[in-house]
Amino acid sequence: MHLKQTKVHKRKFTEHLARWHHDVNQRSLPWKNEKDPYKIWLSEIILQQTRAEQGLPYYLRFIETYPTVTALAAAKDEEVYRLWQGLGYYNRCKNMLATARHLSGAGGTFPDTYEGLLKLKGIGPYTAAAIASFAFGLPVAVVDGNVYRVLARYFGISEPFDTSAGKKRFADLACEVLHHSQSAAHNQAIMDLGATVCTPARQQCARCPLERECYARKHDMVAMFPVKSKKLVVRKRYFHYLVLRYGDKLWMQKRVAGDIWENLYEPYLVESERALDAESLMGADALIAEKIELVDVQYAGASSQRLTHQLIEAHFFVLELKTGTPPGNGRWVTVCELENIAMPKTVLSFLKNNLYF
Length: 357
Fold this sequence. Notes:
- This protein folds into two domains: about 5-225, Endonuclease III, domain 1 (Orthogonal Bundle); about 235-355, Nucleoside Triphosphate Pyrophosphohydrolase, CATH 3.90.79.10.
- About 45% of the residues lie in helices and about 15% in strands.
- The chain has helices spanning about 5-25, 35-45, 50-65, 70-75, 75-85, 90-105, 115-120, 125-135, 145-155, 165-175, 185-195, 215-220, 280-285, 285-290, 345-355, and strands at about 235-245, 250-255, 265, 270, 295-305, 310-320, 330-335.
- The longest helix has 21 residues, at about 5-25.
- The N and C termini lie far apart (about 65 Å).
């Protein structure tokens, strides 16, 4: 493709996208057209790894409970984690709290530059660009999975987007096609197009404003873009949860730093390299074998939870104890108190399904 044709191609991309956003795109979400950097930041943190439809009720609850960044900063960790429960990727919540407290200590004001926003914990290039564009009107292009997909298909980019060179190429191209005087509208349009029309599967090309000049559409190669170089390696882990019961109380302990689900509560855990039955489990854990007196042990079922790089296979065993002697670092929690602590999804589902609350 000649340089002149490339410029025309890029100009048409920008023009068609702008027209579609103005005339057709009526996707209604509460953070669209928002100018408050706090609300934009909050929505972007929630929407990382989360679909808009799933994140919407969380966003509304957070805004109602913590209407300002200073209100969020003043909240107790446990309350915030509980409100976040079910969204997953809890490191987002941890970083969000750290940034809120940093900003609160600096007067509660967000930096009004892309570079300043990038310095905040938990804010990467995409989130910084979104805040800079939507809140401050700066001509900065957002680049996320939706943008990779739209650009790769339209321009026929076969370079993998998950390499350093690929990320730079897509970032440069996103800047080149950016409508500088209407950066917020442009960024919203390209993300909406990727989320609703140019989707990973079941694309709606007939509705796409870019269909006529789209390389992938013209060459019947839509499913081949974008290109990814790395094959995801998933680690399988076997969790054996011992639901220790004494009267109307359950033993719960907080997960430590440096692993998944940091700061969330769970029953006593035994992890192994393979799934264990009750007999093997009783002999595998010194605490069970030596320190607590049991009335009964019952296998209560299994569930699995897929994370980005891990597959957790969780097995649950209910153990009735003779005494309430604490088995380790944790605390006894009444059934009523379970409502007030944050837990991983797989633990929460088990307890709810088994009518603990």
